[in-house]
Predict the structure.
Amino acid sequence: MKRGFPILAIVTALLLSFALYEALIVAPTEQTMGNVQRIFYYHVPSAWTAFLLFAINFVASILYLIKRSEKADILALVSAEVGVVFCTVVLITGPIWARPVWGIWWTWDLRLTLTLVLWLIYVSYLLLRRFSTGGKTPVIAAVVAIFGALDVPLVYFSIWFFRTQHPSPVIGGGGSLDPRMAHVLLINWAAFLCLAWLLCWTRYELEVAERRVEESHAMESLMEGSQ
Amino acid sequence: MPIALLGTWALVVNGTFFAAISLRTRSREIMLPLLLFPFSIPALLGMVNATTAVLTGEQSAKFWVALLLAYDVVFTTACLLFFELVLEAE
């Protein structure tokens, strides 16, 4: 591991605790929803981080198809894995918020359904990576990742045509957000981005090490076979 | 009528493509539906909602037909582009 790693870890820990303090104590209480609204500071940054990671996955997949470099393949795998984690956070915090505010855990509203679909797509992508055989896994996985990324814009443009039960997007949705709340939101997002970076970094190094071990095992059995 | 055509086209294109992909996997009987279903949900949604709109006449089906059309165009192009790559991945 490089020297930057512990620094990033410390920065992440500090930012996360600061963001927690900001979200729970500094941020003003919402007028109608009360304290329940504070989960917003986790829900929205996780969603943004997840989208960003899926975008990285898309770019890395294209890069892999063009250059066939192992690094791009590992990056695609790692960003999909961490992205699924953040998407899961979104899908869990959403219902927790919806229960007191809407009175229901889940509704088959377009936006909720489509987030679930997004999650399903990337879970099936990870499953495919686990289950496919032979050395061409990365190629197939990259193609599937690009297909998944093609699904996303179709899905997200449809939100603009419909008024859904889900609150409109904060950015570009014409929603009014208290500047103090926006400030807390951005701090939380920064913290989540650092956390995502840290996770990706760790997972990346782990995957590289795993592949090296596998290679040396393969070499060993090859040597034994030839003796 | 155009709904049936577009919907069938979407399912056929994706089905063929993911069949080619799942050829390369272990336990392919499980992997095919697992992969195909999430990727086809937008098309399925479009078909169901367009048909509902036409039958009940409450709202316009225009948007859903446009969604289906966009889905067909995008995925047909992508399938044609990547099909050889996937088949040759031996």
Notes: Residues 18 and 33 of chain B are 9 Å apart (CA to CA).
